[in-house]
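ok so for the tutorial part 2 we go from a plain amino acid sequence to predicted structure tokens. step 1 is just haveing the sequence, like this:
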Amino acid sequence: MTAVHRIADPTTDLPAAGSPPTRPSAVSARAARLRARRRPAERDLTQIDSLLELSTGLWPWLPGANVIMQLANPGVGYGVLESRVESGRVDRHPIKRGRTTGLYLAVATIGSESDRAFIHDEVKRIHSQVFSTPQSPVRYSGNSQQLQLWVAVCLLRFFVDQYELLYRELTAAEREHVLALGMPLATVLNVDPAAWPPSWEAYEEYFRQGMEAARIDDPVREMLDDLVRFGPLSGKLLGLGTALARTVGPVNHSFTRFGVPRRTREEMRWEIRPADLRRRRVISAVARAADVVVPAPLRVLYTVALWDLRARRALGIAVF
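step 2 — the prediction. this is what the tokens look like for a chain of 320 residues:
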């Protein structure tokens, strides 16, 4: 069969004399991006401009797993356990610590250079108060580049895991792009840009070695186990925190076992049970549905966090 080609009238699509050339509006461009977000598994992630484009409805269930990965490094683990910065202790002030951690992630992912310089200096000031004592089981410093690099490398997985646990593995090109986007997670802390892994292969090797060296001693393990059960929320939020610890805490603990590597799971002395598999299926189904309603949910939350940061700075209100 011979194809029939329509010969276009050369004047059909020409704008009227004197009218400006037509361009896609900013609104239509945003609408196109929104439609693409609603099909997460099909997106070309080499085109994203922020790690927040990897965020999915799984984001509330993975922070605990990421904290455990970070604290599997003994220096980080005991640094958090023994911290003398009372207001920043996650086991005593979980709401404030959650706010400030979210703020740091907001600045690292979508903040301005001014935001990043401010948080860099503030974190450095606070971490200068975190250091080991002669009684500490391991030596550590809150401003150690080595320890902060480990934290940043783990935090990159917070974004990658949200996407890969729910949809698909990233391609090689997508991983390299995401790795480049992740560098501010380290440089907003006290890490020199040259220390950031230059390739995904180098990143994976660094993470593998870190996992092999993982060690979670009993005091740190007990703190983490209580944290992922939402134990620190008990007695807070006018009783709501206690209700969350009793109802949502066990579910969060269950899903957290899927969010950590096997080596970390072994250090936590956890096993995956049939009930955990059932909960994972339910949570994943709800997360996919939520992504249709609010694609890339963390962009909304982190944008609000940036507004809060800038308002506090303008009004002279303490950020940390």
